[in-house]
Specification:
The complex is a heterodimer of chains A (about 475) and B (about 100).
Chain A lengths: L2 H7 L8 E7 L8 H9 L4 E7 L5 H6 L6 H18 L3 E8 L3 H18 L3 E6 L5 H9 L3 E3 L8 H6 L2 E4 L3 H8 L5 E4 L4 H11 L4 H11 L14 E5 L3 E6 L8 H7 L9 E4 L2 E4 L4 E4 L4 E5 L2 E4 L4 E20 L2 H5 L1 H15 L5 E8 L19 E9 L2 H17 L20 E17 L3 H4 L2 E6 L1
Parallel strand pairs in A: 1-2, 2-3, 3-7, 4-7
Antiparallel strand pairs in A: 1-8, 4-19, 5-18, 6-15, 8-9, 9-13, 10-11, 11-14, 12-13, 15-17, 15-18, 16-17
Chain B lengths: L2 H4 E8 L4 E8 L2 H9 L5 H8 L6 E6 L4 E7 L27
Antiparallel strand pairs in B: 1-2, 2-4, 3-4
The chains are: A alpha+beta (about 475), B alpha+beta (about 100).
Chain lengths: ~475, ~100
């Protein structure tokens, strides 16, 4: 009997405790093994792992690369997959390979193939694809059924065509279709973190409010504890309430730490929007079961009248080169804004007709702030220059920062004493190619009348 | 009273690539109540601290966690050219000087 068949056979449902083990919130960064083993000893009914996020920025989605090291990713996949196999339960993996587009899914699947071959086992794996159909996106944009989530431009046909990759975040609907195929492993492209952990509870008839709320908390493993950490987290869903416990005895979930976790990386802590509805935690109550376990009641779920998908796209914008340099000369520091503007003009004179984006960041003088209107920094004792150029080719980007380097070093200004050079280089060469640069070109919500066709599934047996 | 003496956590982070959230967590309900009543943490005061339009600032009370959340539009999409803080984790500095 398949592992999903066994689950369905166990007469689980509201009133019966359903144990969901969150093995990793960032698979590929090293799953703490002791807590995972402690979690497996509790006989979970399903194991979930989240593997990605939009947080690391547009590079990974655009370039089709993983943020995590292949060796550690393989180690973590092996722990999760063989752990689930030993427990004879399904394992669900969301947002494969950091960003969940086709190359991320393929690279993760390759690692799993290697693990299966090495272990001499066979495995049924359902792969859910999250790459969006561009013709469909263009039709939806033309019908005015795609909206920006915040301050980003409209999703035009040109942006859709220009993106290196465009994915949509799948919800529980896609995982439920995959579970119906009775696989051992579900490997999903871009997915809502919650869907990974809420799908099996929904399959077994648990109510969506508490199931999604529990999923929302355990998807970050033990981050909701004090001290917070990355150890496996066990969520036990009873029906209208659930219990939380870290699998590391040194970490305690308390009513306050769990409530505070609702704030994390969330614009609205009371409502969480998912493809098929909205989780409302305004009436949630957090109760201590003992000094390190919390019981949570009160989350509700409102199904969406119009299902929708959050769309993420990333576009290549050029090749980046950077220059690293610093100064501790008070006069260079005092005049740095004028110096860098002067250098910018000289570069433009030396390289007329070239198109490039040259930026001078003066760390020590407010370069970390996103808000130019915030109070200025006090005058520093030293200043670090990060000079950045993005241009159509790596050669041009490097040439621009190279010219900027030489002119920053020897730029003359009134009162200058430092005629040996205005800046110090920490090593040579101080100008460094930084690879391709990307930007998020899509972060929008698209209405979707047919979630099933947006996220197709392929089933494969690995040997 | 200085906010840094009353708050237990003052942090910033992206909420997606287009928004920035500031979380201010207090040790107890008394600390939270004091901060939540202060005009120094109302939307107009936060807008002035960050030099942005008050219409783009939302302050969301979350008493269950003794916390105030502030949501700002990111001036630059996370990771786009000119961004300075891809995760948005270092944008809490203006709050450190707040006097309640």
């Amino acid at each position: 009997m398949s592992v999903v068949g066994r689950l369905l056979d166990r007469r689980l449902g509201p009133g019966q405790p359903l144990r969901v083990l969150s093995a990793s919130g960032q698979l590929g960064n090293g799953i703490p093994e002791a807590a995972l083993q402690a979690g497996l000893a509790r006989e979970p009914h399903v194991i979930g792992c989240d593997m990605g996020s939009i947080d690391p920025g547009p590079y990974y989605l655009g370039a089709g690369r993983m943020a995590t090291s292949p060796a550690i990713t393989r180690r973590d996949l092996r722990l999760a997959i063989l752990g689930a196999r030993q427990a004879r339960v399904p394992v669900l993996i969301g947002t494969a390979g950091t960003a969940g587009a086709a190359p991320h899914v393929a690279a993760t699947l390759d690692l799993i193939r290697g693990i299966v071959r090495e272990a001499g086992i066979s495995l049924r794996i359902a792969v859910i694809h999250a790459d969006m159909d561009r013709a469909w996106l263009k039709a939806m944009a033309a019908a005015d059924r795609i909206r920006a989530i915040g301050a980003i431009g409209a999703l035009t046909a040109a942006e859709i065509d220009g993106a290196a990759h465009i994915v949509g975040q799948m919800g529980t609907e896609a995982f439920l279709r995959a579970l119906a195929m009775e696989p051992d492993v579900i490997l999903a492209g871009r997915a809502c973190d919650t869907a990974v952990f809420a799908a099996v509870p929904l399959l077994l008839g648990y109510p969506a409010g508490p199931a999604t709320h529990m999923a929302k908390i355990i998807e970050c493993t033990s981050l909701c504890c004090t001290p917070g950490g990355r150890d496996a987290m066990l969520g036990t869903l009873h029906g209208d309430h659930f219990d939380l416990e870290s699998m590391n005895p040194a970490r305690a979930a308390t009513p306050l730490t769990v409530a505070a976790h609702s704030l994390y990386e969330q614009a609205d802590p009371l409502h969480v929007q998912e493809p098929a509805g909205t989780l409302n935690v305004a009436a949630a109550r957090f109760e201590a079961l003992d000094d390190r376990r919390v019981r949570v009641h009160g989350a509700t779920w409102t199904p969406a009248t119009q299902p929708s998908i959050k769309i993420e796209g990333s576009s290549w914008i050029g090749e980046r080169a950077v220059l690293l340099a610093a100064t501790c000369d008070p006069r260079v520091i005092e005049h740095h804004a004028g110096i860098t503007e002067g250098v910018r003009r000289i570069v433009a004179e030396i390289m007329p007709g070239e198109t490039y984006d040259l930026r001078f960041r003066a760390y020590g003088s407010g370069a970390t702030s996103l808000f130019p209107g915030a109070a200025p920094m006090p005058t520093p004792g030293e200043l670090f220059f990060l000079v950045e150029c993005i241009a159509a080719t790596a050669e041009l980007a490097k040439a621009v920062v190279g010219v900027a380097k030489q002119n920053l070093l020897h730029f003359g200004f009134p009162g200058r004493l430092s005629t040996g050079g205005n800046i110090a280089f920490p090593f040579t060469p101080p100008e460094i190619p930084a690879g391709p640069a990307y930007r998020f070109s899509a972060y929008h919500i698209a209405d979707c009348d047919d979630l099933a066709s947006a996220f197709p599934i392929t089933l494969e047996t690995l040997r | 009273m200085r906010l840094i003496d009353l708050a237990r956590v003052i942090r910033s982070k992206n909420a997606g690539p287009l928004h920035l959230t500031l979380d201010i967590l207090f040790a107890d309900a008394a600390g939270y109540d004091r901060a939540a009543r202060s005009p120094a943490l109302a939307a107009p005061a936060i807008a002035s601290l960050y030099g942005v339009d008050p219409a783009t600032v939302a302050v969301i009370p979350f008493p269950a966690a003794h916390a105030l959340k502030v949501v700002l539009d990111r001036p630059i999409v996370a990771g786009s050219p000119g961004d300075a803080d891809v995760y948005g984790a270092q944008q809490h500095r203006p709050l450190l000087g707040v006097i309640l």
